[in-house]
């Protein structure tokens, strides 16, 4: 099961409320231009709308439409299923299997962390073990 960038954006807007494209990119760990492109598609599909916010410093933010909110809920349920799959499978895997399994979901980790869908300690362990493995090539031990 996979979660597309547009689904990730919808979930984020559902959870955080109206956000600027730069904020969305920051939260999701994505390129701003990639996010801006996706926002255009979501707007054309009438899932989001542009809103001007602020009095002195006006900025353009994106918010969900009623249809977008429905789609965001579906996407959120999909992300919860992914999180449950990670939780259920993680303890029965060896290090190599775990690394391969988690690599397919690494792009979702920022969103999973924001939404607290996995225990924080587990995320630290998962992210720590993957970086420790990556850094072992640089070790002199």
Description:
Helix content is 63%, strand content 9%. Strands 1-2 form a two-stranded antiparallel sheet. The protein has a single domain, classed as Orthogonal Bundle (Arc Repressor Mutant, subunit A), CATH 1.10.10. It is mainly α and 141 residues long. Strand 1 and strand 2 (59-64) form a beta hairpin. Helix 2 (21-28) crosses helix 3. InterPro entries: WH-like_DNA-bd_sf, WH_DNA-bd_sf. Keywords: Membrane, Transmembrane, Transmembrane helix. The chain crosses the membrane at residues 105-127.
Throw out a few tags for this protein.
single chain; 141 residues; mainly alpha; Arc Repressor Mutant, subunit A; two-stranded antiparallel ribbon; 9% strand; disordered C terminus; membrane; WH_DNA-bd_sf; transmembrane; transmembrane helix; WH-like_DNA-bd_sf
Helices and strands, with pairings:
Blueprint (H helix, E strand, L loop, with lengths): L4 H12 L4 H8 L3 H13 L3 E6 L5 E6 L1 H25 L4 H9 L5 H6 L5 H16 L6
């Amino acid at each position: 099961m996979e979660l597309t960038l547009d689904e990730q954006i919808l979930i984020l807007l559902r959870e955080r409320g109206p956000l600027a494209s730069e904020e969305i990119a920051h939260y999701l760990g994505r390129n701003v231009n990639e996010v801006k492109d996706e926002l255009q598609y979501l707007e054309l599909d009438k899932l989001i709308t542009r809103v001007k916010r602020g009095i002195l410093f006006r900025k353009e933010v994106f918010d969900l439409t009623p249809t977008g909110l429905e789609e965001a809920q579906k996407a959120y349920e999909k992300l919860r299923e992914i999180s449950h799959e990670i939780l259920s499978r993680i303890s029965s895997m060896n290090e190599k299997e775990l690394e391969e399994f988690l690599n397919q979901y690494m792009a979702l980790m920022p969103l999973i962390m924001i939404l607290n869908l996995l225990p924080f300690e587990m995320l630290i362990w998962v992210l720590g073990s993957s970086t420790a493995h990556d850094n072992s090539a640089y070790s002199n031990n």
